[in-house]
Each structure stands twice: as structure tokens, then as C-alpha cells.
Amino acid sequence: MRKERLIVPVVVVLAVIWALAQYLASVLFERELVRAMADLEARGDLVVERCASERGWLSSTGCVRISPLLGAAWQLELSYQARHGVFSTRVEGEARPSVGPRQFQLFGDWLPSSPPRWHARYQTLVGTLEGSVQLAPFLVSQGERELDFRGGQLSFGGQQGDWRLRARLQPWRLTDGLATLASGPVSLESRYAYTSGAYHFTQHDLLRIDTLSWQQPGLALESGELSYRSRMQLDDSELRIDSELTLGEVQTAEQVLLSGRIAMELSRINADAVREALVALRRETAKVRTLDLRELTERLEPELLGILVDSPRLDLVEVDLESPMLGLVARGSGALFFDPRRIHELSPSRLDDETEKALWLNRLDGDFLWHEAPTVAALWLGLPLSTRDLQIDVVRGRVRVNGRPLPPLWR
User: Fold this and answer.
1) What angle do CA 333, 394, 234 make, to 5 degrees?
2) Residue burial 331-361, b: 16+ Cβ < 10 Å; e: rest
3) Do residues 309 and 303 make contact, with C-beta atoms less than 8 angstroms apart?
4) What average pLDDT does this structure show over 126-147?
5) Each residue of 2-42: pLDDT tens digit?
6) Closest C-alpha to 314, from 363, 281, 278
7) Cα four-point dihedral sign 99, 102, 105, 108
8) Which of 173, 116, 169 is nearest to 140 (CA)?
9) Which phi and psi (to 5°) does residue 301 adopt?
């Protein structure tokens, strides 16, 4: 009899614990969603907002709208329905991308396919999210144009401060009359790590295209694997961007037209000025989203000039290109610098003026070395035909090669 009297309190306690855990899961999911939206917007180039929201104890529904800060080229609306559990929350919904100022729905208005669905699971205790989006195949035709897309998959995951994205697209083909552009499988791996408010961040990206081909009457190009790596880092002092492009063998007429790699680095972009420029940009676009580019540049002129105060530097770390078909080799390296002295004399908003453009070019200095230059280059430059290395100097915007002014590119 005593045991029976204990059953009811135990059941009540367990029910209360379950209810509290269920409520806590709902609260934590909502908190993480708000934080994720704020983190995504903190980068400065996107607007992230709720288009609907309904919180519940057992489930929640809503949608999130993402669009570029400048212009109206595209918009992505993510609907979601979250089913809260004690230890995890299951989330699913649709991704509805739209394009153009009139916001045509990509799936439905343009493509004969329903919007892709996405699925995710949020682990309440550790705060991690893992999800995926499946892209269905489709075939769309418009006159002589045809796009044959064979589907793909995107997966994402991570937690606050560290997110990963992986994408894998199956081969696709675009036909326009007698011309055809075709691609083999395409993969993208991206990782974004950041501190609160994106004050510091690092983003790694790796894009691979297994094969790429272009065919039209009289011309056929076939490329092996193409890959592009980039690393963008914002720290206390600077924004730095490292990138590398690797070309597999590009062939035509059964000969190798081009292969090799190019590595570059952009550095000394003042970090505080970058952050100030992003804040100012968000402030101005919050007033008027359709500002003219020149007018916007005028308003942000102090911040834009501040980005250049540390003398930005562009390093051509390595160029290693070869064309057996043309008998050309390009191997070399170099650097280009910007002179920030008396920077207040410059105006980014007037760069379309020839006089202003000359003032900016006058701030450029650098040097490059081209090893194993072809004889035709020496002939064109008026150098001895035995010349194999070209020393390219940029002094106040004027180019000299092995001590001689660069001839006009167009005669």
C-alpha cells in the first residue's frame, strides 16, 4: 500500500521534469536561432530577418529571410518546423530562393521543380546542429537553350563560432544553340570560425570542378580538375586574403593548351577600418536600401580611405603556367604596394574621372620577375632575343620592363 502511494508523486515529479526539459529545449532552440541569425548578419554583407515566427512548447514554426545588404539580386526564404525533444530538436522546412528585383521564385516560376526541402537536428545539450538539403534533378528548356541539372546535396553543421558547409553537385550541362558548356561533379568545402560579433573571423573555402568543357563549331576545350582555395582572416590589425587557383590540363585539338597554378595574397587591409566601414554601410542602407553606388561611396568615403592607411599589399606569391601548344612558359613572382601618404587627397567616388584615376595609379609601386620569358616577348619589348628573365617594375603607376618603358598594348 505504501508503494502504491509513492507511485503518484513519482509520476508527477517525472512529468514535471519532462515538461521542464521540453520547455528548456524550446527556449534553447529559440536562443540559438536568434544567435545564429545575429552571427550571420555580423559579417556585414547580408540582411537576416524573421518573416514569421510561432513558438510552441512541443513544436515551433516560422521562416527566416536572407538577402544581400546591397541591391536586390536575390533572396532566400527558409521556412522551418521544429519538433522539440528533451535531448534534441528535429527541424525541417523548405528553401525558397528568388531572384531579381521582382523576386521571381527560382523553383516554380523559372524551374519546373518544387522547392528543395532541408532537414536538421539540433542537439540540445552540446548546442550542435547538423543538417542537409537535397537538390532534385531538373531539365528546363527555353527556345534553343537547355539546362540539364542532375541534382546534388548540401550538408551543414557546427555550433556557434564554428560552422561548416559541404556541397556536392552532380554533372550538369548548359546548351545554347550549337554551343555547350558541361561540367563534371562540383564540390565545395567551407569552414567559418569567428568570435562574438564576427570581430575576428577566419573562413576557408575549397572549390573543385572535376571536369569542364566548352564546345562550339570550330572550337572544343576540355579541362581536367580545376580547384580554387582561399583563406580570409580578420584579426586585430588586418584583413588578409590568400588564394590559389590550380588548373588541370586544358586541352584543345588533342594538345595541352594550358596548365599550372597561380597563388596570390592580399594583406595590410586595416582591420578597424573594415569593421567601421561595415557598420557605416549597414547604417546607410538601413535608411535607404536603393542608394546609388556613387552616392553610397561618397557617404562612406572616410571609412573606405581608412581601409588603405596601412599601405595594402598584393603579392603574386607564385605563377607557374605552361602552354606546350603555344610554346609559352610563365614562372615568376612579385608584389604591388599602395602609397597611403596624403590619402585625404583621393576620392573613391570620383574614380570614373580620368584625372582622379591617374592620382590613384600614381600611388602604385611594385616589382615582378618573369622567368623563362619567351623570345616573342623580348622581340615585342625591343630587348635582346637572348633575354630570358624580365624584371617588371612599377614606379608611381608607370611600368618599365628591364629598365625600358612598357610599349603600348594596342597599336
Assistant:
1) 60
2) bbbbbbbbebeeeeebbbbbeeeeeeeeeee
3) no
4) 86
5) 555 556 565 555 555 545 555 566 677 777 778 888 887 87
6) 363
7) negative
8) 173
9) -55, -45
- CA 155, 158, 159, 161 dihedral sign is negative
Within 126-190, where are the H helices? none
Give the tens place of pLDDT for each residue, 287-345: 765 667 788 888 889 999 999 999 999 999 999 999 888 888 889 999 999 999 999 99
| Bridge partners of residue 186, in order along the sequence | 169, 209
Q: Which three cell numbers stand for residue 310?
A: 596601412
Long-range contacts (CB closer than 8 Å, 24 or more residues apart) made by 76-85? 77/51, 78/118, 79/52, 82/29, 82/122, 83/58, 83/59, 84/22, 84/25, 84/26, 84/29, 84/56, 84/57, 84/58, 84/59, 84/60, 85/22, 85/25, 85/124
As given in the structure block, the three cell numbers for residue 367 are 616589382
Cell of 159: 555550433
**Cα–Cα dist 234/267, whole Å:** 10
Q: Which residues contact 29 (CB under 8 A, 6 or more apart)?
A: 60, 82, 84, 89, 122, 124
| Cα gap 268→307, rounded to integer Å | 9
